[in-house]
Amino acid sequence: MKAPNARLEVAGIDSVILRLFDFIDEANMPWMLAARARLQEVFGGALIDLVPSYTTLLLHYDLCQLDSEQARAKVAEALAGLQPADLQDGREHQLPTWYDRSVGPELQLLARRSGLSEAEVITRHSSHAYQVFALGFAPGFAFMGLVEEILAAPRLSTPRKRIAAGSVGIAERQTATYPVVSPGGWNLIGRTPSRLFGSDIEGYSLLQPGDRVRFVPIERAEFIRLGGDDSPLEASQ
């Protein structure tokens, strides 16, 4: 597996962006995880924050301990001889999901766009283990992918002001679950009763970069039994 051609970009007086790739790909993740681990090791206590995304890592370091040249030298040290991480060490989560128009209003739209039946959309979405690429947008919000191209759909032109926690959606070739009530513009196709974010969860978020996620279809009765809220979207506005 060929090592990425890493590039360093200035993001601020005390931060840099390490760009490892130019395009989103599941094959990026072993390198992203390996780079994150090495950067944490090399920077040690001088690292304030490290934020991974699909193709980049944002490093925020302590200016009282490092200047920009020293930070760049540490990045080079971290990348020297870098080898991809073993993804088998990542966790796989199964999220029970109730796919239904009442909680997934774009389920019908995605079926119509793709030429598939709603049942086929559900089968295709739930038949793949998705890679968690990054966390962002809202606490515990995990960007996952990649969904099949036939299921890809652009974000809504007008985002909703309020989306229920647990809502499962698709945007382009990404999929995600809203961990808390928030605004959003993804195409909603269902809802999970699983709790994804909380102060009593290690790292506060159930899902972490490098994990894999499978959505497991369940019926409404099971969704309710597991503590799910089946309130329609209109009731939450």
TrEMBL record:
Molecular-function GO terms, alphabetical: ATP binding; hydrolase activity
Keyword Nucleotide-binding among UniProt keywords: yes
Recorded superkingdom: Bacteria
UniProt keyword annotations, A-Z: ATP-binding, Hydrolase, Nucleotide-binding
Carboxyltransferase domain sequence ranges: 6-207
A Pfam match: CT_C_D
Protein name: Sensor histidine kinase inhibitor, KipI family
Organism (species): Ectopseudomonas toyotomiensis
Lineage: Bacteria, Pseudomonadati, Pseudomonadota, Gammaproteobacteria, Pseudomonadales
